[in-house]
Amino acid sequence: MCGKRTALFALLATCALPTVATTVPGQTARAAQDIKVNVTSSTEAVVTWTTSRPMRSTLEFDGVIPPYHRRCRVSDYAQAVIYAPEVHGDALSADLIDRDLLDIRAANANAINLYGLGSPGLQKRAFRGAGITLEEHLLRKCRQLQLAVIARIEWYPATFTFDVLSASLRADADAVLSYYARSIERIRRKCPGVLLYYLVNMPMDDTFVQDRLAPARFPTAVQQRDYVRYMRQRLAEMHPEAPVRVVVHWGALDTIPVAKFSDLADGLALVAYPVRCSAAPFTAGLPQVDCGRTPGPYNGPSLEDPANVIIGKDQLDYWLEKTRFINELTGARGLAMDGVGFAERLGHWSGIVNDHATKVQATKWLADYLADEHRTDGFSYFMFHD
């Protein structure tokens, strides 16, 4: 794994202070503009100004901490950033996508983990009068910047129950792949070589899906494997030889029964939150750390807490080893860490930390942990959770 840690900051402020330049930690002073001086007396005046740097991209919320020391080949280690362009809302444009991807590239990432593939917002035209969509523009830009794309197969219908056998209604897997059909064709024919792999989501922790599966609440191992097998088969028809991985999530308290998938897919992507007091693996007999706090924004561990509270190494060890054991994997190849990061403003314990300084330290520890001893073959950092 590679990268010197840097921080990206956004600054958009209008202030009433007797100065005309501002600084943010890690950023050099920037000249101000629109300076106005209001003389209030013979000895006093109020100076107001607007800084010269507007908000540039979604990647600059409060200072992102890219955990990659240096850029390396994606075939050696996938250094990905979770990217959800539709957070721009109605302002989403080809220009904003370009800025985001340039920021990601500058942060030593070699891949994006794309949320929103196939979504309505990305099907809008990239330029007035142009024939390409924002989605195709994004894919082309990634290829130009040598950013591989992890294409998440994340959407599912409101009636989803992991059904692949229904004769009277279109099976869930067919509905999912119908939603993505245009995007898959676009990746295959118009942007060859940009795909790292398709990542099939398994919405095991969706309470609405669980309610439809009641009283069992979870699909059986046979249902899970049938679903993954069928998805892999259909994806091979739609995009021959494209790699396919499957999301694995055991649940915060290790309560989700996940089947073995390694013999059905090209790899796995493990979702696990690296804060020990959030959900220590109780079933492994490990002690719970009492944080003494109610989870909420700015109410997570801080630098005053022990390291094992800030980032639960034993918790991550447990999830990685359990995933390897169930799937009979050895080494790092075929197992990535998906959507892991730290944040200050979440309403639950999924990577919550108390402040930015703790986030910087926690991110450093997480990156070093995942790189050490080749635990994984990739890491997707969830920097939007900030």
Question: Keywords, please?
Answer:
18% strand; four-stranded antiparallel sheet; disordered N terminus; 386 residues; 26% helix; eight-stranded parallel barrel; alpha/beta
Helix content: 25-40%
Order of helices and strands: EEEEEHEHEHEHHEEHHEHE
Taking all residues together, what is the mean pLDDT?
Answer: 78
Strand content: 15-25%
Q: Please count the beta strands (DSSP E, at least 2 residues each).
A: 12
* Multimeric organization: single chain
Please compute the radius of gyration using only Cα atoms: 23 Å
Shape: globular
Describe the main β-sheet briefly. Answer: 8 strands, parallel, barrel
Sequence of strands across the biggest β-sheet: 5-6-7-8-9-10-11-12
Please give a structural write-up.
This protein is of the alpha/beta class and 386 residues long. 26% of the residues lie in helices and 18% in strands. The chain contains eight helices and twelve strands. The strands form two sheets. It has an eight-stranded parallel β-barrel, surrounded by four helices. A four-stranded antiparallel beta sheet has the order 1-4-3-2, with no helix packed on it. A hairpin with a 2-residue loop joins strand 2 and strand 3. Helix 1 runs parallel beside helix 2, helix 2 crosses helix 3 (172-190) and helix 3 (172-190) packs parallel to helix 5.
